[in-house]
């Protein structure tokens, strides 16, 4: 019968081997690509990364082709976003300026959303059924 010291040594050795093996597995496995950018660019990047690789080029191509249909609204929304940041950081703080900036931001968001909807629908039309299902699943997961 092995001594307690021998059993402890075997357990520690097995633990070390298991930790090295798991560490190597974690170290060498591919890391998911985190979507980059902010706001709109990040949203589009997240959609693209959720899509199967074969759907991504067509999806991106439609959004680029349709860009003129939403570019002005996107630029206005981004400008309104900057106005909110400026009003929020202003010293002395001016609540009315922030309220005005937030009202403009909300209006620009609604305008952009309406303009972009058509482009997004067209882009989804070229995505495979499996890709659209993956997007729907990702949306459900994000709401949890």
Walk me through the structure.
It contains six helices and no strands. It is mostly helical and 144 residues long. It has two domains: 31 residues; 108 residues, Four Helix Bundle (Hemerythrin (Met), subunit A). The radius of gyration is 25 Å and the shape is flat. The chain starts with a helix and ends with a helix.
Q: Mean pLDDT, rounded to whole units?
A: 83
- How many helix segments? 6
CATH names the topology of the largest domain as: Four Helix Bundle (Hemerythrin (Met), subunit A)
The 3D shape can be described as: flat
Give the number of domains: 2
Number of strands: 0
Strand content: under 5%
The SSE string, one letter per element, is HHHHHH
Q: What is the gyration radius calculated from CA atoms?
A: 25 Å
CATH architecture of the largest domain: Up-down Bundle
Largest sheet: none
The CATH class of the largest domain: Mainly Alpha
Poorly predicted parts:
16-33
Helix content: over 70%
* CA distance, first residue to last residue: 54 Å
Structural class determined from secondary elements: mainly alpha
